[in-house]
Specification:
Layout lengths: L2 E3 L5 H5 L1 E3 L14 E2 L26 E2 L12 E7 L8 E6 L4 E5 L9 E2 L12 E3 L8 E3 L1 E2 L6 E3 L7 E7 L2 E5 L5 E5 L3 E4 L15 H6 L54 E3 L7
């Protein structure tokens, strides 16, 4: 699956770049593994906006993903690979030997008809899930747990992965794509391979309307507002805000560390790389 461009018949198609989904399942999702969603428009139970720039968008059901790989040492066959509107990665529908079905995050290279398995002493191949203690160093992983039995939390978005660097006692050392190196319990479960759809980062929306279809509303610059609405608002003529960049509530928007100390800080060996601003 590659990228798809269009002839410039309109202004929007001139710059649009999308993912070619011709090889994905074209039907509806497996109904027992879906549930409805309540779209709040960014408002809380009092009707007040608590998350800006959210609203509208196409209705879609949530696909229930098995982040725990609950069926241990039972072989499953990949029935189909589907698009999921709730995430950037593709999902795969598995059918186990006992005819139970489940959705998983689809890794790169997984095809319809492939066999996958989770549990102890399973083969080291794409799509199989097992404990970090049973995986050789240097392996690319996704769907990694932070706490044993708590479900996958790391490397779940399109094209992402972590690398198993080695072991330190009862901990496994993993390197994240952000540059962070940290320890996690070697009892944590991880899945072999890299998440599907690596071309997600190369798409170009093409027009404002496509963002509205995705439930994203327009953003207004603070300097274009009135002083009552934003600290950067007001002023005679066009101004730059008159102060260092801040949020609408006055919190610094550049470089201010807001992360509170956590007990898990001691497990971080190297912090993530700083972004180039």
């Amino acid at each position: 699956m590659g990228l798809k461009t269009f002839k410039p018949y309109t202004k929007s198609t001139r710059g649009t770049v999308v993912i070619d989904k011709s090889s994905l399942w074209k039907g509806t999702p497996y109904k027992p593994l879906t549930k409805g969603q309540n779209f709040t428009g960014g408002r809380n139970n009092n009707g007040r906006i608590t998350s800006r720039h959210i609203g509208g968008g196409s209705k879609h059901k949530y696909r229930i993903i098995d982040f725990y790989r609950k069926k241990k040492n039972i072989t499953a066959t990949v029935d189909r690979i589907e698009y999921d509107p709730n995430r950037t990665a593709y999902i795969a529908l598995l059918t186990y030997k006992d005819n139970e079905k489940s959705y998983i995050i689809c890794p790169q290279g997984l095809k319809v008809g492939d066999k996958v398995e989770a549990g102890k002493n399973v083969e080291i191949k794409t799509g199989n899930s097992l404990s970090l203690s049973d995986i050789p160093p240097g392996t690319s992983l996704h769907n990694v747990e932070l706490i044993p039995g708590n479900g996958a939390k790391l490397a779940r978005s399109a094209g992402s992965s972590v690398t198993l660097s080695g072991y330190d006692g009862e901990y496994a050392i993993i390197k994240l794509s952000s540059g962070e190196t940290r320890k996690v319990s070697s009892k944590c479960i991880a899945t072999i391979g890299v998440v599907s759809n690596p071309d997600q980062k190369n798409i170009k929306i093409g027009k404002a309307g496509r963002n509205r279809w995705r439930g994203k509303r327009p953003q207004t610059r603070g300097v274009a507002m009135n002083p009552v609405d934003h600290p950067h608002g007001g002023g005679e003529g066009k101004t730059s805000g008159g102060r260092s960049p801040v949020s609408p509530w006055g919190q610094s928007a550049k470089g201010l560390k807001t992360r509170k100390p956590k007990r898990s800080d001691k497990l971080i060996i190297t912090r993530r790389k700083k972004r180039n601003r």
